[in-house]
Amino acid sequence: MLPVECLTILSNPVEASSSPSLLLYPFLPRSPFLQTLPSHTHNHSTNYTLHKLKMEQSQEEPTKKPPPPLRSSPPAIILRRFEPSPSDATTLFSWASDPRVTRFLRRGPVPDSDAALRYITDHILPHPWYRAICVPPSDTPVGSISIKPGPVQEKNTRFRSASVGYRLAHAHWGRGIATAALRAVAAAAAFAEWLQLDRLKAVADVENLASQRVLEKAGFRREGVLRKYVRLKGEETRDVVMYSLLSTDDTNE
Ligand SMILES: CC(C)(COP(=O)(O)OP(=O)(O)OC[C@H]1O[C@@H](n2cnc3c(N)ncnc32)[C@H](O)[C@@H]1OP(=O)(O)O)[C@@H](O)C(=O)NCCC(=O)NCCS
């Protein structure tokens, strides 16, 4: 019996009944590798758990085509909801207060853990889709990723596009974590939760090369530079690069 590894992203059918459980092969094109799995009783609402699943290739079935070989192993991640707890507030503060993390973000550093708790309560909890990025077995957030659908188009109350944002604690940069989270979001969450969604978009500062690279690795396409598009921290207005991923995009190009 030859063990072959693949990855799963499992969603909870309780809250996100329209969101199937998904099987995703890492670092390979999105759509051809998604597959519906049987219903799963995971205990977190709309949490996306990326974990290893062992598959066995039966020697009795020599004609069965094995999955394509893995080019590299992305890190396992868990996307979970933030809790309005001192623990999550303290952790959020630990990296949201870091100027290296907030450099290209509209909001400045969070000043203290009380402000972090208020941010969780006032901004994160009412947000349509905002998740903590955790690296198992730890349940401690090392970053966040969010999707905001909209705007609603005239004569059509259904969302057709949504914006993605993400950030990660500096100590965890360069390990593929943001790419894994974005892939999980792009593949498993957005188009599954908002079925009418045509377009996921993200903007990255022209100097934020790491974020641009993350978007490209996750299959987003570079559309162009928007000049003087975002005002950072009430100061300078910056040029950004617009990226998008369409529900119809073939990322196998
Ligand atoms: C952008 C950010 C989320 C990336 O997270 P990450 O987990 O380190 O990203 P990954 O490891 O998945 O990929 C980073 C890629 O950028 C590349 N990269 C990093 N710094 C780079 C630089 N200065 N120039 C060019 N490429 C760079 C890495 O080499 C890697 O690409 P590779 O896999 O081809 O080698 C993280 O740096 C961050 O939180 N930054 C602050 C917040 C932020 O800017 N958020 C995005 C707002 S649009």
UniProtKB/TrEMBL annotation:
InterPro entries: Acyl_CoA_acyltransferase, GNAT_dom. One of its GO terms (molecular function) is acyltransferase activity, transferring groups other than amino-acyl groups. Residues 55-64 have a biased composition (Basic and acidic residues). Residues 55-75 are annotated as: Disordered. Residues 77-247 form the N-acetyltransferase domain. PROSITE patterns: GNAT (PS51186). This is Uncharacterized protein LOC109712901. It comes from Ananas comosus (Pineapple).
